[in-house]
Amino acid sequence: MRDKISESTQKIFHAAWERIAPFHEMIQSRPAVLSYSGGKDSSILLHFYFWLWIEKKIPAPCIYHLDHSIRFNLEQEKKIFEYADSTFPFSKIFKKKNIPALSRRLGKTLEETGRAFRYKDLKKISDQYEGYIVTGHHSSDYLETILLNLIRGGGWNSLRTLGWYEKNRFRPLFAFSQEEIETILQSEFWKIFEDESNNSDEYLRNRIRSYIIPLLLREGANPDRIYKNFHRIEKPVSKIFSKKNSDHKIPSFLKIDIWVLNDLSQRERKFFIDRYLRSLNLYPTTRNFFRDLTNLLQKENSFSLENKETWFWKSTSSDLYLIPKNSPCLREFRFEPKEMVLKWNGNQKKIPPDLIPDLCPAGAKIRKNGMSIEISEILRQKEIPVPVRKMLPILRGERKVDVICLSLWDPKIGDIVADREVEILPDFQEPGV
């Protein structure tokens, strides 16, 4: 049976959603892996993502829980799973690890050991799901953490800890004020499973939470304001492309250096290709499609592969081309006879009055260097992608091909002109295209 979410909590959720606007694209396009302990904070996190799943149609998240083998009540772990399983219709990964034994073996504190194991596990899962990690940290946790780090000798970076988004970890509860968190906890009757170790003075963090934080709050410390003083909420920036503005011109195709791809791991290669696709306003590849693409790349042969949105093309020696199916290079040219202007692929050229633009028929040849050469062979040598070749304009005169308009495909490539004098006027870019 699913938990109810009160109207007041839904209003807080909506306000928090508006505050994390820079992350909307990520949240709506990638699945979240939610780190769930069973406590108050992770319960709010879980219900917030449940609300987002219903209201904003985000991808279904995955719930991750780790039993640290510290709880004194083993029955409680069973109840946590039963509650999550009966309440949230998401995939779940519940694991158990003897953190105290691992801590002794590594010579680290229980907190350090548990955190290291959790994040290592979460990273594996987020890579598998091609998603991102979500934790329930908020501003009070931040205040505890900086005090903990300073006590241990931390420097300036101690104040910059727990960013909104770092190392593929997202912390949306920083969008909730402490007052809003308290309001939610008082308004809702969700099941909370508190770890009994949180009440033990054996741990430094617990002593900070129990004795130092209350004193600071009584003296007027404001965790929300302190966090904002050292953190800004910013949209995650692509490491490959940075958009200067939202109305930038989307290219008609992109080319990925094959040597770069070959030097990457499978995960890095997928990330790399998907970022190129995103810059073309296209969706990332699915896992199965990427596997097929990788198999073709490894064979080092020429191939043409397509999904619903994109052509992926490569010759034996060329780089990998990504061509959107709505690209202007896959549409027929436009010709304005009054101005004698030929337009194609976002470029244009003025042509002489004695030439007629056309598409290249099968088997057509052009006279070059005293020989008749098949145009298809020239296009192959120039590594023009197969899906583009049938749309690339030519210029005819006296029933013969006089010009292959390669410059309309790529202005850096010159036109191929037949062995006779043809006046070709300078190319120019179409304004606003």
TrEMBL record:
Subcellular location per the Swiss-Prot or TrEMBL entry: Cytoplasm
Record EC number: 6.3.4.19
Main location class: cytoplasm
Any Pfam family hit: ATP_bind_3
GO CC terms of this entry: cytoplasm
Domain of life: Bacteria
Residue stretches making up the tRNA(Ile)-lysidine/2-thiocytidine synthase N-terminal domain: 33-210
Record bears the keyword Cytoplasm: yes
Keywords: ATP-binding, Cytoplasm, Ligase, Nucleotide-binding, tRNA processing
Gene3D superfamilies, sorted: HUPs
Record has Nucleotide-binding as a keyword: yes
GO MF annotation list: ATP binding; tRNA(Ile)-lysidine synthase activity
Residues at which ATP binds: 37-42
One GO-annotated biological process of the protein: tRNA modification
Group of enzyme by EC: ligase
Alphabetized InterPro entries for the sequence: Rossmann-like_a/b/a_fold, TilS/TtcA_N, tRNA_Ile_lys_synt, tRNA_Ile_lys_synt_N
Protein family membership: Belongs to the tRNA(Ile)-lysidine synthase family.
HAMAP family reported for this sequence: tRNA_Ile_lys_synt
Domain notes: The N-terminal region contains the highly conserved SGGXDS motif, predicted to be a P-loop motif involved in ATP binding.
Its biological purpose: Ligates lysine onto the cytidine present at position 34 of the AUA codon-specific tRNA(Ile) that contains the anticodon CAU, in an ATP-dependent manner. Cytidine is converted to lysidine, thus changing the amino acid specificity of the tRNA from methionine to isoleucine.
Protein name: tRNA(Ile)-lysidine synthase
Organism: Leptospira interrogans str. FPW1039
Lineage of source species: Bacteria, Pseudomonadati, Spirochaetota, Spirochaetia, Leptospirales
